[in-house]
Predict the 3D structure of the following.
Amino acid sequence: MNKSFYRENAKKAIADDKLQAAIDLIQDRLGKGILNLWKEKPEMDELRNRVKAAKNKNLKNLDILLAQLADSVEARGGHVFFAETAEEARLYTIELAKRRHVKLVVKGKSMLSAEIKIDQALVDAGIEHWETDLGEYLVQLDEDIPSHIIAPAVHMNREHIGDLLAKRIGMPLSYDPPTLTLAARKALRRKFLKADMGITGCNIAIAETGQVSLVSNEGNIRMAGTMPPIHVALMGMERIVANMQEHKDMLQLLTLGAAMQKISTYVSFNGGPVAEGCPDGPQEFHLIIIDNGRSKILADETFSEILNCIRCGACLNVCPVYGKIGGHSYNRATCSGPIGAVIEPLLNGINAQADLCKGETLCGACLKACPVKNDIPRMLLALREKLAYGDEKWAVEQQNPLEELAFRGVGAAMVSPGLWHTGEKVVRAIMKKKPHQNNMVTAMSGPGRAWTEDRDLPPIAEKSFARLWKEKLENRPLPAEKKEGSSAKDEGEEK
Amino acid sequence: MAERTAFLKKIAIAIGQDGETPRDPAEFPAIFASEDQAPLVAETRHRSHEELLQLASLFEDVAKNLNLTCHRAASLKEARKIIVKILEETQPEFSTEKSVMVHDHPDLAALNLSETLQKKNISTYSTASGEKDIRAHSEKALAGLTVPELAMAAGAVIVQRNLPGQPLSTSLLPSIHIALLRLENIVEDYDEFYARLGKYPEEAMVFISGPSKTADIEAVLVHGAHGPRALHCIILDGVK
């Protein structure tokens, strides 16, 4: 079997004790927390169903909602740009930055900004940019990428961070989280106050009021949307509710799912330039609504459910696979974990991201944890089916034609006893010759090798069940014939 | 406009519309319809003093877990004392001198803070429209004083709208944030909170439920990531 990035990195992650401890910590607290919450508060079910219903309604009317959102923002003097591709979104942002002579950009944490690769575009344009969420900032200084949706630096321990900050921002060496946080606070405050542009994402846009809303605990997103003279908000086209009542419901699920918080420290709403004479920014507000492959997902009934995702990261916190292999193993994609295993293949090619959807276990924990009850296991299976047979619409090449052939062979054998028993004899003979330990086969060759690389294989029994049946039980009396003998017991029970 | 039309057409086709004529939001009011909030709003406005005190207690209980410090004041004089005490006990972070940004609000004006604070060597700057250098003063300030017009007890949340003379940065840039909250402006839960918010015309608004915090380094909770490192909420009871 080919060595894949996914497999190689997963192996490294499993062997990394520090990473394992860090992920355990977050899964223990947040993952178990959210599962318990749904169990202990069944009344939350009503809220979850309400949000899901609203989301479904909104997806079916997405053209109307986005038109309303754009009208509302524009009525307040904001600018709206509809970008069909990542490239269009990048171009719009960079051109705007150049037009306004932007030299320094501060970013609020945004998954979408990573998806459209805005950072590289800023670098290419010679514009200094800083991530301002503490975790994202650390990851940027380390020239790495985030490994968790809400805890981007979960893979870094305090020693690593202390060394990093000492080297990169010249602070005295310390491994104390409050001291490290304070140093980052000081360094980034200077950037916030000097920045010419703030780039944020959008957690929930409200069509009726024409706003984007963003949650944060640090206050960095408030800074990015309040201090610089220009605010650019990047929004995935599905991140929208119709009105404030829907916002109220979804906000609760978002902060509970993300961090078990009743509400985040800050929920900020932005929807246009500030009034003249206000000492705060922004003087210009730009909303970029991005498709980048989402309309294709929307058009496919099998996968459109994934657009209900609120990117809270709860599925990562309960996933046994994420829990072992960590975020970076997911091909260093923007999204990791169960949500990444569905959305990344859909956005970036099912063949290219095949390992992501094949690596999950289908245990169903993500479905249980998901605040909006997205059936991720169902979609993982649907993706695997496309890989197994190929798919024209999604341009999927059949991943392993031999596999299909093999299963067709097994299928044919299963309806033909003669063929089946011959096959059984052949495989039994092969297995007998292979090395054994504790009654298990430890090393197969050929297609069986991949299995025994990581685990042993039980040998085929000397006599199959069918054979045993024939020899011993075929002529035994049927239960109906024994009825008289068992009547005594029945009577005993009646007494 | 062309890119908007093409974009929305693609979506319309994806959801099974013909995509030929753009669908006009005005023709689909049902999509935006929300329940009438008037009865709930009325309920929140007719609470007895007793009920309001219960909500204040709930607010304080929730606040404890969020590291939000609550105080109660039965008069403006008492509120002023509390503010002075907080300012005296807090060291400046962004300047060697102590200064306070004060929102343009009658409740804060009624405190007559500047005179008292002057005696303590603490400068007071108003954020009223027309004042100069608000941004520069805010960047150096020790504290920002605001008056939230609404609070939610169940989440210990206060709201700040971007209004003339009341910039959002007052609760963001200074080292600490002090909010003067009238008892009668506390409502119980999410439903009541949003009912009272209604549809607001301002372009910007923020919900605040505690001081800025992060747990990005080994999940250790640290207060004062980028925003204020402390939030004090003074609940004003019985002030006309």
In short: Chain A touches chain B through 96 residues (CB under 8 Å). The CA atoms of residues 345 and 354 of chain A lie 7 Å apart. The first strand of chain A starts at residue 79 and ends at 83.
